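Final report, Chapter 2: Outcomes

The project's central promise was a pipeline that accepts a single protein chain and returns its three-dimensional structure in a standardized token representation, suitable for archiving and comparison. That pipeline is now operational. To close this chapter, we reproduce one record exactly as it appears in the project archive, with the input sequence first and the structure output second.
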Amino acid sequence: MGGSGKSTIAARLCRRHEAMNLGVQRAVIVGPLDEFRVRQKLSDRYGGMQPVVDELNRGGIEFKHQLKNVIEMVEEAGKPLLLVLDDFEQNIPAENVADGSLSLAAGAYGTLEALCFAFGESAAASRLIVTCRYFKKETLPPNRF
């Protein structure tokens, strides 16, 4: 349900994580999720780290592996990523909400799949937080969260 405090709880979790892990870089994407928005947000957040920007713009490598490499780079630099995907229900088409399937839009699914892979490969301080009105485990990509 909207207005029940999901974003407020996410903000509190972020502050707690940032207090426990100095150097954490918070990046927030509200609403629609796609590869371009993730690349842009990470480039904005880590623009001062040229190797990160270069990795995000490198061709010939799957996005999920680019993300994994970026997370490793920022971890090594002492600037772990705290990525928040807020209002994530915007990635579920209205007809999929109405019929109860809750299937994600294809672009959002693929991007979330890449993020789950990259964060799943990292055992360090980088974290992913998702706020959403709906939850149906079988509609999500494989993950260890």
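Archive annotation: The first strand starts at residue 25 and ends at 30.
This record, like all others produced under the grant, will remain available to the consortium after the project formally closes.
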